[in-house]
Each structure stands twice: as structure tokens, then as C-alpha cells.
Predict the structure.
Amino acid sequence: MADREAENEEEVYEVVDITEYARRQQWWGRLFGNNSGPMAEKYSVATQIAIGGVSGWCAGYVFQKVGKIAATAVGGGFLLLQIANNSGYVQVDWKRVEKDVNKAKKHLKKRADQAGPELNSFIEDSSEFVKKNVVVTSGFIGGFLLGLAS
């Protein structure tokens, strides 16, 4: 028992501050900057515009392609449903469809009222990000519009 106590007293652990260690590493500083503030403190205006513009263009381009595919699928589905209905292959009870749509609207409205605080928190966080990173956000919006147009 006495031997165990002596062993425990001899064990010394050194506490290492990982954040300080990471800041001293050059690769970490080059990749993430020396502080954790907004982008305006880390990069030049031209770099911020380039980062925002390229990411915005990519997002806009993907949004455009996915939107076209979704619109084609939904429109094609309605077209096929109408053709099948007019040809007599399918009988659609439009009164029941209207009833179900109204029921879904009420359910969505109820859920939207419940999600109010979460949505307000998201909007506040987003507006704070935009205020801190105005240049990047401007580049993103411009790039997004160009991506939609291409």
C-alpha cells in the first residue's frame, strides 16, 4: 500500500494548452489566421470578394440546375396526371384532393407558428454574420446571381 502511494506521488502530469500550441504552429496560422474574429480581420478585401464570389457562383449554379430538374419533374408529373385523367386511366377525386390540401395548409400554419422562436434566432444569427462579413456577403450575392444566370 505504501508503495502505491509513493508511485502516485511521483506521477506528474503536464497540462498543455492546445490553443496556444496550435497558434504557435505556422501551418495553423496560415490556414485559419491568428485570431478567430470575422473574416474582415483575416483577409484582404479582394480575397474576401473572391471567396464570396466563387462560393456564391457555385451555390447559384447548383441551385439553378437543381431547380430546373425539380420544376421539370413536378411539371411533368402534373402533365402525366392530367393526360391519364383525361384518357380515363385514372379517376381523380378533386374534392378529396382539395380537402387534403386544406388540411395540410392548416397543419403547416400550426407548425410555422410553433417554429417562430427558432426562426427568429436563425434570422438574428444570419444578420449578425452579414454585418460582420459585409464584403464576403456582397461577393456571395453577386456570385450567386451570376451562377443563376449561367
